[in-house]
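Recall that a protein's primary structure is simply its ordered list of amino acids. Everything else, from secondary elements to tertiary packing, is in principle encoded there. The following example makes that idea concrete.
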Amino acid sequence: MPRIRVAACQINTVVGDLSGNVARTLGALAEAEATGADLAVFPELTVTGYPPEDLLGRPAFVADNLAAFAEVAAATGRCAAVIGYVDRAPTGRLLNAAALCWQGQVLGRYVKRLLPNYGVFDEQRWFVPGEGVPTLFEVAGVPVGVSVCEDMWFADGPMAWQSEEGARLLVNLNASPYSRGRRSERLAVLAERAAETGCAIVYVNQVGGQDELVFDGSSCMVDSSGSLVASAVQFAEEILVADLDVSVPTRESAIAPPMRVLVTTDTRASDRAPVAPTADVLDPVAEVYEALVLGTRDYLAKNGFTDAVIGLSGGIDSSLVAAIAVDALGAGHVHGVAMPSRYSSEGSVSDAEALASNLGVDIDTAPIEAAHTALSDTLSPLLGGEPVGLTDENLQSRIRGVLLMALSNAHGWIVLTTGNKSEMATGYSTLYGDSAGGFAVIKDVAKTLVYELCRHRNTRAGFDLIPLTVLDKAPSAELRPDQRDDESLPPYAVLDPVMAGYVEDDLSADDLVDRGFDAHAVARVVGLIDRAEYKRRQMPPGVRISGKAFGKDRRMPITNNYRSVGSPAAAPLADTNLSSGIQPLDDGVGSGV
């Protein structure tokens, strides 16, 4: 049985960094060749990075991408390489392409057939699908079929066609964003394609953060039975090298001669010691934590930031964001600021200081009382009296936002906001206050998951890195006396499942009630989510870890009079306003920083 040595080159490309991506690709190719690999496979759109979005509207960018691809192709040697790039059709339309290169030549290309146009994907905006029968390549005596990402996800698709033409190894280039449970989904689909085609499959995914998206890598190889042969690490670069035993048809006619492109190699994998490494798999909570760390690290690094500043309130959200930032950047590059008000408890300040000490980050204290008084005095003549209620609460949050942004201006630090998905969903935040900043680390993390992540980080540290007093205290914005989140919102254990069903699963209020959720809670939560769209549209980007995140993943109109509260048992929307007085197009309650 022939054996082929394949290198899955799980690299961290940067969108638009053509020269940098060329260097990363050639470095990985050299490493693959040094291992004796016959074939090196790279992620989708290796040259441009993924997703290039509207850069593809610039003819100069497309031309520069083609020049960069030619540079990579010319540098190939004994080890054949499958490289992703943007090509042009004769009509001038763009193609999501992958080419097999060897000995400085481009031996053939494959064009992605199935173009996703849902969720975070907009490929039909720019690309046209490939047509015709895909070319097969013979590498080290093995007939190989090439496909790109979405082409793998459907039965009777490109992989099936290639196996019918005689392919015995299928390689699939990917830029598949992370979401919870995604690795298991991919393995299930790979097993289905292996069963359908009878082929071994090499799945190569990119790794790294790109704006809201984080790519987890998790490249892998399965044999013709669908069993996992080798797997790469999650959330880190790796050149995964493994030997695959491939059964090849004895009848030469099994491969259509016009489509076969031969690639010979100096040595055969059968002459070398076998390689089949398998990486450990993270548990579900650790997986999310590493996604947040990688997404934060790459967003800052790829956009030229070295340091971050965080408002430390002594609360659980800012504590988690600080821990993630330290793991992403190092303690010396994270700066905390405590900004107590007249309503801040003594424990909030001491908890913030304890956290900073445990993390090894510097912390300054900047009381906001003087600014609060000055602005209240300035506003009083305009309001006919001192600011009260939401006006006064949001004033405090905006003072904190001003202080953090001033530090950003003075030092070049990026402000990391600390709002979670539960708050963002319900509008429990202050525009230009706690929402002001450059990156929202936990914007896709529900409040209940925030607690799980904190406990995970403490377990990993071996002590209460995030003080237990932070985890045990009732959540509060501390913008009025004795304030608690559960006075304004349903308990998070109730809110979060309703939010997930409505936002991530697109269930209606009736659906949620039919599934056993309390009708009044559903009406409250759904009403708040619907009314807060205008706020979410103004929030900074943050790491996507769910199947549907706020941002480019979920695109709801701001001006929208459809209300999904049709159950006769549901409370009317008039009863769903927060006790603090949130109304449509109101700034809402400031959740603090």
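The first strand starts at residue 3 and ends at 10. The chain has two domains: 3-281, 285-484+538-549.
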